[in-house]
Amino acid sequence: MKFLRNLLASILGSLVAFMIIVGMFFIFIALVGSMDDGVVVKRNSVLELSFVAPVLDYTGKDDNDPFAALWVEELGLDEILHSIAVAKNDDNIEGISLTTGFLQAGISQAREIRKALIDFKSSGKFVMAHSDVYAQRDYYLASAADEVYINPVGVLDFKGLATEVLFYKGLQEKTGIKMEVIRHGKYKSAVEPFLSDTMSDENRTQIKELITSIWSVIVDDISESRNITPQNLNIIADTLGGRTPEYAVASGLLDGALHYDQYEDLLKEKIGVAEDEELNYVGLMDYMRKAKLKKINKGSDDIAVIYAQGEILIGEGGKNYIGEKLIVDALHKAIDNKNVKAIVLRVDSPGGSALVSDIIWREMQLAKKEKPLVVSFGNVAASGGYYIGVGGDMIFAEPTTITGSIGVFGTIPNVHELAENMGVNAEQVGTNENSVDYSFFEPMTDTFRNVMQESIEETYDTFLDRVSKGRNMSVERVNEIAQGRVWSGVDAHALGLVDELGNLEDAIIAAADMAGLEEYGVKKYPRYKSGFEQFMENYGSVKTKIGESIIQEEIGTEAYKILKEFNQFTKQEGIQAKMPFSLNIK
């Protein structure tokens, strides 16, 4: 009886849950149906840019998805740039007010938005900025504005770039859980945290040179916009000369310290609105809905832009990771579409599976036999990300792109010491000498390590060969600048690893030129799951998300970050062509 009672309770619970989901579905239908199809932008409006969600290069939204507006987990860089470009020629938009704080975007993404704002100003319209707090990335973006203001008791961070690498050797010794490591590349230090408690000289050198190169680009951009020499900007950073609003204004980083109502008075003055009248603001999310109906690039022919973003993993792929299926399917669709005359692959990836990288590289080789294929690197195109990009006819990178990292490694978890400490003994039985190749519960044998090292060397040699042919360099020259070393876009260009410094738009223009097109549209691939499909998946993973949030709350943000990073390594499959460290520039 107890079994039947529990069974009936489970069935009833499932029915109730199903009814709730169906009810929510129809509520969403009603909400979407009641939403105005168009956004009304009044005369003398100000476009307010406040980036309230993480920025991806591409969110893959289906314009025909009625639920798209209800799920705003990320913002698409492509949509942001398009909206700013549309606003430039919108007679109802007088200017832009940038009010963002803690921009959740990469340096290269911030630079693209910054360039779009500068282009917007070329129309004669204004860009103003105000914030209570400016992190360095926020200030870098805001410095493109005509005038930059801060709350009188606000905070501005301007001290140069830094990054932090976590090391786990001590943790492994204490827990008895370790990572067995096989690698090739003097700078392939993604696995260094498992081998040491301190940073190697080689790793310190490459990180120092990388962030110094990126900082130089940032300083030069700010120097041009704020009319402060790079030398003085570095003095301000070294002396923390912007640490208070008063110092920041005196140093020239800011134009003034104003409360928000005072800042609004300046906006009203710029567009001729009386002080006692309300400003007409239009938010970024609303304006995106209007802007997507406006086509900037027009023509009967198309340039296909295929977005590859996230870590490279075995599987289908999605907006947060690169799998072979979605990218290969996208390449096939672009080739088969008679209106598509050229292809641009946009890469934003630290790398990952060497196998998947080579599968995509091969498809790139086949695709460029059919149509011109240009590659655009975003925030990161390192290791496997560079691997797939080198298959194109031409490569563009931002000066701040992190790229290169031509190297290979493999990591395999091992719990022998933990098992031994807990009194667990594993015994293996096999039919042949090498049938038991590896056990998590036993130390790695020399035979298995040698076989893995051989595979690593073969993969590395293949990587060198791909780069050699793609960049028209000798294998010896590629090996000199490889070894897992990462470079900024500026240095990669000087070394011949990329062809041109430029953004996605530059790559699209180059592709159109290669195809002989003067007028063209842009067709984006791939399409990701619809909002409703995402909702259904999220509903099913609510328990997991709640569990993760509880763990984070209990152990703290920093400890949770360490746990996730360590856990990510344990899930890697096969040989990895991945960036040599987890880099969070701040």
From TrEMBL:
It comes from Flagellimonas chongwuensis. The keyword Magnesium does not apply. It comes from the Bacteria. This is Signal peptide peptidase SppA. It holds the Pfam family Peptidase_S49. The active site is at 188 (proton donor/acceptor), 383 (nucleophile). One of its GO terms (molecular function) is serine-type peptidase activity. The lineage of its organism: Bacteria, Pseudomonadati, Bacteroidota, Flavobacteriia, Flavobacteriales. InterPro entries: ClpP/crotonase-like_dom_sf (IPR029045), Pept_S49_pIV (IPR004634), Pept_S49_SppA (IPR004635), Peptidase_S49 (IPR002142), S49_SppA_67K_type_N (IPR047217), S49_SppA_C (IPR047272). GO terms for cellular component: membrane. The chain crosses the membrane at residues 7-33. Keywords: Hydrolase, Membrane, Protease, Serine protease, Transmembrane, Transmembrane helix. GO terms for biological process: signal peptide processing. Belongs to the peptidase S49 family. Its main location: membrane. It is found in: Membrane. NCBIfam families: SppA_67K, SppA_dom. Residues 120-270, 367-517 form the Peptidase S49 domain.
